[in-house]
Amino acid sequence: MSGPTPSTLVLLTDLQSCAPGQKVRFLGCVDKYSITTATLRLTHNHPPSSPPRAAHVNIDHVLESIKRKEIDVGSWINVIGYVERRKEKGIFVQAITVWDAGNVDLEAYQKAVEARNLVA
């Protein structure tokens, strides 16, 4: 039995080490939304001692299903998508699904992802 390729749960700050084409799942805070390019800039300040990293997430493929509150600046969202490499500098992801993270406990989330990745 075969199905879709599973996604790899990563922290936004670890996206830079993911291979182009890799399917990932991560959490980020909406910092900016560009209507003309349908691109969200998501940030996550982890670890807190380093400057926040950003990921540019194209949401073209999910525009019909995305809710307004999921693109509001300050909203925390979960993303599943594919890492892209472009000529521009930065981290780019093509989203295939996006959903509201709700009232997430960031510290517990960060610890859980790190612990999971240690055993993987």
Automatic annotation (TrEMBL):
<dbReference type="GO" id="GO:1990879">
    <property type="term" value="C:CST complex"/>
</dbReference>
<dbReference type="InterPro" id="IPR012340">
    <property type="entry name" value="NA-bd_OB-fold"/>
</dbReference>
<dbReference type="GO" id="GO:0016233">
    <property type="term" value="P:telomere capping"/>
</dbReference>
<dbReference type="InterPro" id="IPR024222">
    <property type="entry name" value="Ten1_fungal"/>
</dbReference>
<dbReference type="Pfam" id="PF12658">
    <property type="entry name" value="Ten1"/>
</dbReference>
<protein>
    <recommendedName>
        <fullName>CST complex subunit Ten1</fullName>
    </recommendedName>
</protein>
<dbReference type="GO" id="GO:0043047">
    <property type="term" value="F:single-stranded telomeric DNA binding"/>
</dbReference>
